[in-house]
Amino acid sequence: MAHWFHRNPIKATAAQNFDLRSIASSGPANKICSDLREARSKLLDIVSNPNLEMSSLTSAVESYFSLLQGFVEACDEKGGESKLRYSIKFKWTNTLLGYEASSQQDVIFEMCHMLCNLGLWYSKHAAKLAGEKEDVSMDEAKEVHTCLRTAAGIFSYVKENLVGKLLTSPEKGEDLDTRILVAYMEQCTAEAQEVTVARAVEMKHSSSLISALANETAKIFHRADSSLTSVDVSLVGKWRKYLQLKYLFYMSYAHCFNGVTLLNKDKCGESIKCLQESEKFYEKAGSMCKDYAATKGPGSTAKPADHLFYKKLHALVKRTLDKSTRENGFIYFQKVPQEVPELEDKATYGLAAPQDYQLPGIHSSWNPNTYSGFDLSKAPKEDDAKDKKKEEEIKPIKEADIAQTGKDPKNSSGCIVS
Fold it and tell me: In Å, how far are 2, 81, 84, 297, 402 from 73, measured between CA atoms?
């Protein structure tokens, strides 16, 4: 599904050399710093290219975060928090703020931002898998679903387990702002469920199940949008319009298939009302697509209105409404109700959820001997002017383009990842 997903940019960061020569008083301690520098650099290179295989990312994440754990957990008999947690200052940009950066002298801050980049990579890798060719295999569709759930789980992990440990609360609009993290988590969850909806349509599951799944998907997109209502519109205006158009589209889907269900139950009048409501939501989605395309803001621009999956819904709504109207005029003679029939509240199965995420355990290089090789009493006094000069330079990240096809899929649903 080429250009079906809106994606915000990868975050940039200041170079980090882990230069702790003044306090690293042993060979193993210096080796840890050297390994961290190389592992971080490698991970950042991989994160900038969503076209790479997932295995390359997993290996780089294991390497870097396991080494970094020694700066979080003490590796001696006392245990607890590492004495090294506040020894290095990290600086990161934020996805919605351009190159306006934030910094903290805290390894947890580094973990939060690097994990956000991982979540973005998984979401972009999913977009790559879904859009690079017109016939995605079942295994690839499952990988799209897994990537999106993994991304949602990472954003959830940062929100629930790390942000609260920071000594300084994030500024409004930064990536660690709870509202932003919730929006990313909900968006990725909703997009994972889009795969489920498309699969249900392609496999011709019951119209009631498809309606319920579409309704749930719309709700999740709505929650993602709602989490951004109090964020400056100049930062999230475009992003919110994407979330809103997806909400409108899936509400149209839900009412359409509820109309099909009611027609099959000989409730022709109610079916007509549902399909009329579906038409209204589809028209609103079309207007929102234009608004979204015209709105400036961070991120790549999705083009949902160009997709066969999107266009086939309109044909289905029209065809089913015509049938319901015709049958009602010849056979049923039922009154079309004033109120729209309620949608099924929750699907009985097929619902997506964030995948639980856990950080890698501590690297085998860390032990009491290595840990004791860091002596904080030898740390030099800060030279504020020198530090400030070093912090100012953040090089832009050159993101690799996500491979996308312009061809329509050759299946009945119109969705590639079904």
Answer: 43, 5, 9, 40, 37
